[in-house]
Amino acid sequence: MNIIDKLKEVSTFLKNTATENFAKEAELIITEALKISKTELYTRSFNIYVKDSELIDSFVVRRCEGEPLQYIIGYIDFYGLKINVGKGVLIPRPETELLVEKAIISVREQKLLPQPTFINGETEGERKILDLCTGSGCIALAMAQHFPHALVCGVDMSDIAIEYAIKNAKENNINNVHFIKGDLFEPISVHFSLFTPHCFDCIISNPPYIKRSEIINLQREIRDYEPIQALDGGKEGLDFYKKIFSEAPKFLKERGLLILEIGVNQSVDIMVLASNAGFRNMRFIKDYSGIERIFIGEAN
């Protein structure tokens, strides 16, 4: 079969199974299966071998069964990085890219006592950044890439997530990041003498924040394939936030930043937790849908 005919066949099949972005997904399935570029897909005229056609068909079947496309092709583009993902690790979302974007801006504008060392015009030299619930490592890696003279640490309880994060660091050639297994702040002082109380300039996290009762209502490709432990925020969706706000002041420098992705309608509860923990200069940033999605606050 000609490659363009195969593209039309896959696109039609996905459309008939109610795949929302069927045309784009058809392109990705074929280009990844054949290891060709999008340009080659449309400029090269050739027939597909039977084995390649069967591989494409197997991808389509998996997609139609609800498996996320990112798991099928094995990666997702995130803030200029190629992030490998698979079963057992949460797939990064556009909202988390926004979190990274705002975190980079906030850290660059940060006013600390004492001021970090200037390196190449950037105030990066003494910065330490902690990413809690790191998952695939996408947030930690993006921060480490944009602050190459900083020391970044990512923590997660999942062995699978830590394996993916380490792999992603190697494949993106990012060396100023460490990934360690543990429950939020617990492993910091145990594993690295560099990380002591009040040493972090910024703590950032996209923790589980879905109410336990609402998980059953999520899209099938999320509910049935992505790790529940990376979604389940407890009865109110606030379990991880309560722990983070309780412990973060012990690890942040004066004026250190706490930057969090939050769920829908959680801003009021987050503000209460932040105020009780002594944070100041607090603000929320809305996502692309107008939802208050990002919390930023300064430690006293």
Produce a short descriptive summary:
The chain is of the alpha/beta class and 300 residues long. The chain has helices at residues 3-16, 22-34, 38-43, 50-64, 69-73, 94-109, 138-146, 159-171, 188-191, 220-223, 239-251, 267-276; strands spanning 75-78, 81-84, 118-119, 122-123, 128-132, 151-156, 177-181, 200-205, 252-261, 280-286, 292-298.
- From N to C, what is the helix and strand string? HHHHHEEHEEEHEHEHEHHEHEE
Separation of the first and last Cα atoms? 66 Å
CATH topology type of the largest domain: Rossmann fold
Uncertain ranges: none
**Regarding quaternary structure, how should these chains be classified?**
single chain
Biggest sheet statistics:
7 strands, mixed
Rg value: 21 Å
In the sheet with the most strands, the strands line up as 7-6-5-8-9-11-10
Helix fraction, binned, reads 40-55%
Structure overview:
By secondary structure, this protein is of the alpha/beta class. The chain is built from twelve helices and eleven strands. The chain has helices at residues 3-16, 22-34, 38-43, 50-64, 69-73, 94-109, 138-146, 159-171, 188-191, 220-223, 239-251, 267-276; strands at residues 75-78, 81-84, 118-119, 122-123, 128-132, 151-156, 177-181, 200-205, 252-261, 280-286, 292-298. A seven-stranded mixed sheet has the order 7-6-5-8-9-11-10, with helices on both faces. Strands 1-2 form a two-stranded antiparallel ribbon. Helix 7 links the parallel strand 5 (128-132) and strand 6 (151-156). The radius of gyration is 21 Å and the shape is elongated.
